[in-house]
Design goal:
alpha/beta; Rossmann fold; seven-stranded mixed beta sheet; globular; S-adenosyl-L-methionine; methyltransferase
């Protein structure tokens, strides 16, 4: 069964409908250790939080929050922010809740796909949306649906921040990235590796799309992207929200 590209799935997702952590449910318990070992996690997560610049009073949504590491870091950095983590995998959400509780971080965790973000948190509500190591493993229809829903969830002038595998610029990075493709699938990861994610972000009517950093890792290069939702409504925004 394929993911719901329209983002209207309201029942619990089954493992067949999303790519689990490390590509298989049996590997979920190893996810945190693998990410720390193979992706220079402390480097890119610190850079992403610095780029996000969370502030008290903001509503910040972590799409594809996984085991909750990033959502917890954001809440610790800005205790007065409302932080919401969204993921389709109930097992990793259980781990995320335990992790946040252990750090004393009050994070709300909700189950759902990227295409459900606006339904789950409300339209024109979030100040910032962040996502890490998610879009590379999502089919292209799911990437598009997720970005459109994120756009709808953000308030005008809101920000999107992504850390993910991007354009693998060198032969060595492309070779290393094959490890990720072996787990997450060549077809789903191809667009990211070719540098196509910024074009999809712009296609969803974000403005000022830019690659802020490129971090080499043992599994390929991870790019940090930033984009903004325009302060004025376009035709797409009106269609999303139902009003001008």
């Amino acid at each position: 069964m394929k993911p719901d590209p329209g983002g209207f799935m309201t029942r619990p997702a089954s493992p067949a409908e999303f790519t689990p952590a490390l590509g298989h449910p049996s590997l979920t318990g190893l996810y945190d250790a693998a990410i720390a070992l193979m992706t220079r996690e402390t480097v890119w997560r610190a850079a992403l939080v610095a780029q996000l610049a969370p502030r008290d009073g903001e509503i910040i949504v972590d799409v594809g929050c996984g085991t909750g590491t990033l959502a917890t870091l954001i809440k610790v950095a800005a205790p007065g922010a409302e932080v919401i983590g969204i993921d389709p995998d109930p097992e990793v959400l259980d781990r995320a809740r335990a992790k946040a509780l252990g750090r004393g971080a009050d994070v709300a965790f909700l189950q759902g796909f990227a295409g459900l973000v606006a339904n789950l948190v409300g339209r024109n509500r979030a100040d910032k949306v962040v996502s890490s190591l998610v879009f590379h493993q999502v089919p292209i229809d799911g990437k598009r649906a997720g970005l459109v829903s994120i756009h709808a969830a953000l308030r005008p002038g809101g920000e999107l921040h992504i850390a993910d595998y991007g354009w693998q610029r060198t032969a060595s990075m492309r070779l290393l990235f094959r490890q990720v493709q072996a787990l997450d699938g060549v077809e789903n990861t191809r667009l990211n590796a070719a540098g196509g994610l910024p074009d999809l972000i712009a296609e969803a009517e974000f403005e000022g799309v830019e690659e802020r950093a490129v971090i080499a890792t043992a599994t390929g290069s991870i790019s940090l992207y930033r984009a903004g939702k325009p302060r004025s409504c376009s035709a797409l925004t009106i269609q999303e929200t139902g009003h001008a």
